Each structure stands twice: as C-alpha cells, then as structure tokens.
Amino acid sequence: MSLLAQQLVLAVLLGGVYVAVAVGFSLVWGILNIINLSHGAFIVVGAYITWTLFGRFGIDPFLSLPLDALALFVIGYALQRGLINRVIRAPVFFTLLLTFGVNLAIVNLLLAVFTSDFRSVTPSYAGSGLTLGPVVVPYIRLAAFVIAFVVAGLLSLLLARTRVGAAIQAVASDRDAAQLVGIDLRHTYALTYGIGAACAGVAGGLLSTVQAISPTAGDPYTLQAFVIVVLGGLGSVTATVVGGLLFGFIEVFGQAAPGLGAGYANAIAFAVLVVVLVVRPQGLLGR
Amino acid sequence: MAEPFLSVRGLSAGYGETLVLRDVDLDVDAGELVALIGANGAGKSTLLATLSGLVPPVSGSVRLAGRELAHARPETIVAAGLAHVPQGRRLFGGLTVERNLLLGAYLRRDGEIRADVERVVGYFPALRDKLARDAATLSGGEQQMVAIARGLMARPKVLMVDEPSLGLAPNVVDRVIDVCAEINRAGTAVLLVEQDVLVALEVARRAYVLETGRITLSGDAAELRADDRVRKAYLGI
Ligand SMILES: Nc1ncnc2c1ncn2[C@@H]1O[C@H](COP(=O)(O)OP(=O)(O)OP(=O)(O)O)[C@@H](O)[C@H]1O
Ligand SMILES: [Mg+2]
C-alpha cells in the first residue's frame, strides 16, 4: 500500500519533468509545424549551463533556470531567424533534416567543450525530502514538478493573454492574414522557436538535478517529447500537460510492473502510444 | 492637380514565371469609394495582394500619400494606412472574435484600441454578443463582418475589401455592402472588389474593369453601368 502511494507520488513528480521536456517541443510543432530534432540538444545545453554555474560559481541550480531560459531563447531565436527560416515553407523533410543537423552540431560542440563524461548537479539538499507518513517526497523532484507547471502556466498565459501570444497563434492559423494585420512573420517565427528553446533550457536545468547528463543525452528527450505530444495531442499546453503526466505514470508503473522491470518502460510507453494512435489519432486532447 | 491618395502606376505582378497583372494603373482618392470588377481569374485578388505586399511586384509603382510602397513589407503598408480584407474572410480560427479584432490593431500603440472595438462592432451589432466566441464557429455572414471589422481596427486610410458578398444570403449581402458605404461616408476610402457588378456600380462613385490582368475600362460608375460592353459582359443584358 505504502509502496503504491510512493510510486504514485514519484509518477506525478516525474510527469512534471516530462511536461517541461515536452512543452517547448509541442509549441514549435504546433505553431511552426516543425518537428524539432534539436530539442533534446537544447535541453542538454540548458543542463550544462546549470552544471557550469553550479560547479564554477556555486549558483543554486534552481536559481540558474532563468539564465538557461534566456540563453536558449537567444540561441533559438538566432538559429530560427538565420537558418531554419530559410526552409520554413519547404516540405517537412527539409526541416527535419536541418534540425537534425543542428542537433549534431550542438552535440559535437558540447563534446568538444565538456567531453563525454557524465555530469550531475548535486546541491546540499539533494538527498533530502519531505516525509509524509510512509511516503517520501524528494525536495528536488517536488521543486522540479512545481517549476514545470509554472513554465507550462506561463506559456499558457502568454498565448492566451498577450499581444505576442495572439500574434503567435495568428501566424499558426493563417500566415497571409497574419501579414495583412501587420505581423512580421520572420520575427514571430523566431520568437516562437526561441520560446520553445527557452522551455527546453529550463527543462535541461531541472533535469540536471535529477539525472546525470552528457552531451549525447539529448536524443531520448526529443523522442520522449515526441511521444508525449502525440499522446496528449497537438495544439494546446493542457494537452501537453496531460501527455507528460501520463508518460510519467507509464514510466514509473512500467518499471514496477511485475515480471518486467526497468528495460521495458519505453516499450510500454510506445505500446500505449500505438493504442492511442489507433483509438484517437489526434491524441487524447487534440483537436 | 494633386496626386491621388492611392496611386498605382504600371503595376505588373504574378506568381513565379506567370505574369497575372500587366501594367495596371489605378487611383483611389481620399474618401472615395471605388469598385474593381472583373471575371473570375482576372487578377483582382492578385492586385490587392500586390498592393498589400503579399505578392512582390515585377515592375511599377504604388504610392500612398506620396510615399512609395511597391516593395515595402506588408507591415509597413498596413502601418502606412492601407488595410486589406481578404477574399474568403481568412479569420484566425481558434481565437475569439475579440482577439481577431484586437489583432486587427496589432501595429497600433495608442490607447484607443478598446474603444475602437466598440466602434467597429457598432457597424455590426450582430457581433456584440459573439465577441467571446471562436471566430471559426460563426456563420459565413458573421465571419465576413468580423473580417471587415478587423480591417477597420487598423484605422486605415484606404480599406480594400475583396468579394465580401461571396457565398452570403441576399439580406446579409445588403448589410455588408451598406456597411462598406457607411465606412466610406465616415471618411475612409474604400476599394471594393465585388462579383455582383450591379451592386458594386450602384454603391461606388468610380470603377475599374480588370480583364486578364489589364484595366480595360474605367470611369464614373453610373456611366459604366450604361456602357454596352459592361452590360454585355457583366450584367448579362
Ligand atoms: N497563389 C497563387 N499561385 C499561383 N497562381 C495563382 C495564385 N493565386 C491566384 N493565381 C492565379 O492568378 C490568376 C488570377 O487570380 P486571382 O485570384 O487574382 O483572380 P480574381 O480576379 O480574384 O478571381 P476570383 O473572382 O475568382 O476571386 C488566376 O489565373 C489564378 O489561377
Ligand atoms: Mg479574387
């Protein structure tokens, strides 16, 4: 019983991290129609920024998150404006190829700078947690969960309430009509991509506190983000939140499934994905 | 004589290799209501798209209040006072009617945007209780009203409206055309593309006839209505 409660708590907390992993990927896919294969690399860059600031200057990993966001926003904006914008109207294959290339470039740069060693960020409170009866809630995972939801909430507010958010959605809805009201397409595309990258940066900062990172650690995140977005459905932050939480449950309970064990969590996740695709191709909350 | 407010000279444009517009001359004076008529595929929408910067011109000039805009970006053109209500409404589906209207004022930084929502909805009272609805869920007539209202939110000096009556019930068509005239009486110049030639020539002061990318006739709307060529080709008389 207490084991189940503990598993439930871990599943929810892990789901929060997955929300952070997927939310920027979902934005870029939904608005720009780009399946961003460099998303995982952006996450890893965010993780290395947090790791560097922690290791070099002793900055608390959670305090470096805004810097992760800012740095990745700038990188994302520049990459989109200077490079990816050139193929935005090309078939999806070209954007896949291009973002794959960007991914390779970032990974190799990280390998050159940080080597292939695994790194982790372990603040003093890393091992401690909140004890609630039989259940332990690790502080770090709790904080990561809360921050993931803050990020998702802020993104949701940005889209629903601000002028920039309206422009981003207008561009997704009708490019020509968006131009006719005076929206600068190139800027808005780059902003969207930059915001997606900023979300990835925050996710990376969070992940560095719960997992070991290396330059090549990014690809599974891209894959997870993809599965989460397909599970939840494209087109809203809420759908990504649902997809992320569901994915957390699948991971935790997949590992705990009797007779299976750790190696099968991904297999189970993909099995669920296939079922969802068959039953609801637009995803659980997709339009 | 002073230069007309919107002055198009020798404008040619097209898509890729194919030229759709050839050497178009067209003027709209401040406060005028001008109709642009022509058969399907004549290039009317392409002309509006070229004026608003969506289609790059091959040659020619577009001047608004003395300023050359032929190769300007769409946002520059909107900011200069030329707004375009596109054929087929082209609302932002998934966003509310109110946000569609606010997006019409995207480039404005003044404090009167909220008040302007009220003002433009004043033209279409039917929209008043639908501001919170997803624009995509409105009827065709209501969507056309939103499209025109969104164009007005830019506070244009010239409003270009492309086939506002397309696919609408006759009473709705009347309302939409009346509003174009009202907007014009309130001081905004209107360039109206309209498939219903009789209606267009009734409401407009002057008109241009576009045939396969060239202006073949132009002049006083009442005179064009009496012109044999127009009667034969567009009025079926
Ligand atoms: N995006 C485009 N790409 C290529 N060709 C186009 C495009 N849009 C229009 N055309 C072509 O340009 C020509 C003029 O089309 P346009 O839409 O400007 O005509 P129109 O006078 O507005 O017609 P309608 O009354 O049907 O709206 C047509 O031959 C059309 O096929
Ligand atoms: Mg047309």
Question: Would you mind describing this structure in some detail?
Answer:
- The complex is a heterodimer of chains A (287) and B (237).
- Chain A is mainly α and 287 residues long.
- Chain A has helices at residues 2-32, 39-57, 65-82, 92-114, 139-161, 163-173, 175-180, 185-210, 218-232, 237-256, 265-279; strands spanning 129-132, 135-138.
- In chain A, strands 1-2 form a two-stranded antiparallel sheet.
- In chain A, strand 1 (129-132) and strand 2 form a beta hairpin.
- With 237 residues, chain B is of the alpha/beta class.
- Chain B has a domain at 6-92 and 157-234: P-loop containing nucleotide triphosphate hydrolases (Rossmann fold, 3-Layer(aba) Sandwich).
- Helix content of chain B is 35%, strand content 27%.
- In chain B, the strands form two sheets. In chain B, strands 6-7-8-3-9-10 form a six-stranded mixed beta sheet, with helices on both faces. Chain B has a four-stranded antiparallel beta sheet with strand order 2-1-4-5, with helices on one face.
- Chain B is globular, with a radius of gyration of 17 Å.
- The mean pLDDT of chain B is 94.
- At the A-B interface, helix 6 and helix 7 of A face helix 2 and helix 3 of B.
- The structure holds adenosine-5'-triphosphate and magnesium ion (MG).
